[in-house]
């Protein structure tokens, strides 16, 4: 009886071994038809795509279990994942660039229109009010407006000196014009210039224009150039290449589920965030200086409104010019007498036709233009958009995961965690390079910041300092805040030889045993589960069978 029982156990053991060795219908590899369909829909050839799962020892990025991917398929999908992430980054950056560019155009058009309208009003009204005093000096006024435009556009001009030189040239020309019968050599004109400050031939208009124009033009050009710098930083950072460790992690995130036969599994939300926080760690370090820049720009807009604001000053430059010329004309006799008293009697020009009266043809009746409301609307929209853009860099991983990655709605047993379908247990990393030291998905060398991005951080600091100076009415040197020289580095976030020198900590990941299960184990049931995991179950079965054989053989040895 005992021998008969022992023979039964041996028969069962032999049958199990034969089944594991040759494979029965229940343990055959799963079909790759769904993967083939998705792979072909992406434009790839299906000629080398297996019909059923094959052994995955050849895989370099995805887990080396049973797979529907050949080496060529894995490489194609890795390249596709890289292109998709780069496109998503560029798309997100272009949206912000377009917003900043639209703001820049809106403010620039408005400020240019204010200045153009002021010059047009001057050209329309000065000939009737001042006659030849204006007509013979029209070029001097055109040159002033041209220099104001150059200054606004960022030329290396000192505005106070520019205005002082304009008044000095204008005084010389008008004094000659008012006294054509006098010989006025250079030394006499030098004396005239020295007398101008105490005698104030143009009244208080030059001082008022200097104080208000300096504050207004400094603020407007600082703000407009700040918008330009912000857009330029976004553009340059979007072009910084992604490192190789990031690209491996992105492939695992987007397409390793396809290779492992579960293409319907979407990435777990926290898994996606950890991958992109690691990939965009350097970009997140822009956050502090980016916020400082946008805060400073919003602050400078306060200088645009009010009686001494940019709109009132830039749009009414002609009024101070009219006041100045009218004051000189009205007080020319008293002023001439004081000049002669201080500089002596100039010689009379024997060839002169004689003194002519240069009286105005009429009074200048131009009123200050009230605000149209356009600038107020621009400022309101800009402040709202700048506020929305403040967390752009640190929110970028979450934005891409929610908008560009077909992410799972929740982290549960059905989402893709990088190894299988199952919950994703590691915690989400913080923002920035320093917080990626324990990122379980992307190997990040926190001692090697991306130099191209560091240069953009420095550019943000410089621009912020200029904006703060402009808020205080200081004439900051704003020659070329977006010089491409600052971005001359390659910008490779992970240069060759850097990414691979750290110890691979993924071997000691914080995932639980469930997430370390063989790919697809959680969703395969019954016989299919043993098919996916045949190598290890067969080894265990052999141990069990040997024990049964020994147990069945004991009666014989007695």
What this model shows, in words?
The structure is a single chain. This protein has helices at 2-22, 33-41, 71-130, 132-135, 138-152, 159-178, 186-199, 205-238, 244-254, 256-259, 269-279, 281-284, 287-300, 310-314, 317-330, 332-343, 374-388, 392-403, 451-471, 527-532, 535-557. 59% of the residues lie in helices and 0% in strands. With 558 residues, the chain is mainly α. The protein is rod-shaped, with a radius of gyration of 39 Å. The model is unreliable at 1-27 and 478-558 (pLDDT under 50).
Summarize the structure in short:
The protein has 558 residues and is an all-alpha fold.
Rg, alpha carbons: 39 Å
Report helical residue fraction: 55-70%
Structural class, judged by helices and strands? mainly alpha
Mean pLDDT: 81
For the biggest sheet, the summary is: none
Number of strands: 0
Element-level helix/strand string:
HHHHHHHHHHHHHHHHHHHHH
> Span between N and C termini?
15 Å
- Indicate the overall shape: rod-shaped
DSSP strand (E) fraction?
under 5%
């Amino acid at each position: 009886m005992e021998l008969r029982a022992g023979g039964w156990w041996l028969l069962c053991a032999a049958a199990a071994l034969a089944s594991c060795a040759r494979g029965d219908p229940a343990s055959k590899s799963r079909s790759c038809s769904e993967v083939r369909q998705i792979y072909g829909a992406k434009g790839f050839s299906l000629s080398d795509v297996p019909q059923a799962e094959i052994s995955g020892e050849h895989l370099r990025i995805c887990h080396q279990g049973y797979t529907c991917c050949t080496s060529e398929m894995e490489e194609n999908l890795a390249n596709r994942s890289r292109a998709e992430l780069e496109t998503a980054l560029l798309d997100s950056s272009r949206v912000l660039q377009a917003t900043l560019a639209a703001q820049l155009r809106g403010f620039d058009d408005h400020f240019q229109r204010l200045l153009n309208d002021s010059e047009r009003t001057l050209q329309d009204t000065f000939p009737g009010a001042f006659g030849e005093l204006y007509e013979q000096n029209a070029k001097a006024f055109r040159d002033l407006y041209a220099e104001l435009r150059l200054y606004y556009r960022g030329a290396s001009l000192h505005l106070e000196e520019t205005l002082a030189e304009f008044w000095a040239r204008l005084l010389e020309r008008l004094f000659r014009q008012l006294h054509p019968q006098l010989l006025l050599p250079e030394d006499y004109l030098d004396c005239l210039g020295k007398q101008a400050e105490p005698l104030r031939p143009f009244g208080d208009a030059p001082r008022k224009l200097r104080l208000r124009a300096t504050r207004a033009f400094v603020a407007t050009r600082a703000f407009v150039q700040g918008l330009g710098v912000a857009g330029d930083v976004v553009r340059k950072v979007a072009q910084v290449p992604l490192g190789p460790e990031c690209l491996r992690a992105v492939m695992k995130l987007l397409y390793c589920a396809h290779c492992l036969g579960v293409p319907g599994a979407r990435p777990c939300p926290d898994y996606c965030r950890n991958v992109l926080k690691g990939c965009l760690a350097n970009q997140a370090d822009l956050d502090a200086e980016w916020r400082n820049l946008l805060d400073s720009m919003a602050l400078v807009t306060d200088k645009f409104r009010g009686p001494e604001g940019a709109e009132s000053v830039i749009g009414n430059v002609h009024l101070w010019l009219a006041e100045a010329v009218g004051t000189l004309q009205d007080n020319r006799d008293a002023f001439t007498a004081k000049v002669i008293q201080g500089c002596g009697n100039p010689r009379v020009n024997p060839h002169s036709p004689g003194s002519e009266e240069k009286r105005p043809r009429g009074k200048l009746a131009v009123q200050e233009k009230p605000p149209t409301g356009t600038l107020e609307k621009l400022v309101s929209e800009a402040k709202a958009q700048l506020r929305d853009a403040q967390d752009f860099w640190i929110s970028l991983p979450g934005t891409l995961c929610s908008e560009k990655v077909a992410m799972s709605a929740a982290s549960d047993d059905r989402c893709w965690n990088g190894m299988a379908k199952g919950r994703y247990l590691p915690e989400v990393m913080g923002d920035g390079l320093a917080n990626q030291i324990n990122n379980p998905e992307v190997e990040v060398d926190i001692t090697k910041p991306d130099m191209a991005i560091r240069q953009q951080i420095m550019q943000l600091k410089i621009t912020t300092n200029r904006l703060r100076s402009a808020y205080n009415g200081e004439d900051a040197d704003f020659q070329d805040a977006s010089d491409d020289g600052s971005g001359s580095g390659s910008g490779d976030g992970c240069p060759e030889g850097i990414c691979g020198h750290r110890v691979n900590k993924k071997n000691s990941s914080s995932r639980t045993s469930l997430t370390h299960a063989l790919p697809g184990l959680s969703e395969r049931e019954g016989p299919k589960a043993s098919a996916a995991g045949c190598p290890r179950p067969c080894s265990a079965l052999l141990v069990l069978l040997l024990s049964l054989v020994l147990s069945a053989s004991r009666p014989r040895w007695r």
